[in-house]
């Protein structure tokens, strides 16, 4: 069995992909402005993530499940994402995504780009329609940090050999837990508190930071 050399864990919305998935769900449902306003507050750390998620998901009650796949053509990987995944795999890294978004779309994105792990929320539905609730555990900042620890432990890695990348307040604890925590085109509250930051929308710059740290 090949030794795993390290672990990268990324946020999804506005990090692995350019868009905020839940905002696109809102637009498809005709309530885009209402949902985007709550998203912005949560990203700035003005609203507790759990509360913000519950408010946004409640607005989707009665929408068809098909909304989740309907938005897939509008989701685009951030510049450098594919190259980053390819390069880190070649270096013996495992790569995971932890998302406040939803398995129904994130799993498809993860398969497309070749990620090893995924942790996200799951929307509850009945008879093909969304209930306005989350099914199971909600991916909070604590869950994101815990998932980083879990995946590292599964691979026998110390936290010093982990990298975390994210942009919002919900990612901050994960960034502070990882050996290398990178704020990516992040909100001020995140950029100020993360050890490293990338201010250009190019995920491959993670490699520059990794190489600098290991030099």
TrEMBL record:
Keywords: Amino-acid biosynthesis, Hydrolase, Magnesium, Metal-binding, Serine biosynthesis. It comes from the Bacteria. GO terms for molecular function: L-phosphoserine phosphatase activity; magnesium ion binding. The keyword Lipoprotein does not apply. Transmembrane segments: none annotated. One of its GO terms (biological process) is L-serine biosynthetic process. This is phosphoserine phosphatase.
């Amino acid at each position: 069995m090949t030794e795993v050399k390290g672990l990268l864990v990324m946020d999804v919305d506005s990090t692995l992909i350019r868009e905020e998935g839940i905002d696109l769900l809102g637009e498809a449902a005709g309530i885009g402005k209402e949902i985007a306003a709550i998203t912005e507050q949560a990203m700035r750390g003005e609203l507790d993530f759990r509360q913000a998620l519950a408010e946004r998901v409640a607005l989707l009650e009665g929408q068809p499940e098909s909304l989740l796949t309907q938005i897939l053509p509008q989701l685009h990987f951030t510049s450098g994402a594919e190259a980053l995944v390819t390069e880190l795999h070649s270096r013996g890294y495992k790569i995971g995504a932890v998302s406040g978004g939803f398995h129904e779309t994130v799993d498809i994105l993860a398969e497309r780009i070749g990620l090893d792990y995924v942790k996200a929320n799951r929307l509850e539905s009945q008879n093909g329609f969304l209930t306005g609730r989350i099914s199971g555990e909600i991916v909070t900042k604590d869950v994101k940090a815990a998932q980083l620890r879990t995946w590292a432990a599964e691979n026998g890695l110390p936290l010093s050999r982990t990298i975390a990348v994210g942009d919002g307040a919900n990612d901050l604890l994960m960034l502070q837990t990882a050996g290398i925590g990178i704020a990516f085109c992040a909100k001020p509250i995140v950029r100020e508190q993360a050890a490293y930051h990338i201010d250009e929308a190019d995920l491959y710059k993670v490699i520059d930071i990794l190489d600098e740290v290991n030099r």
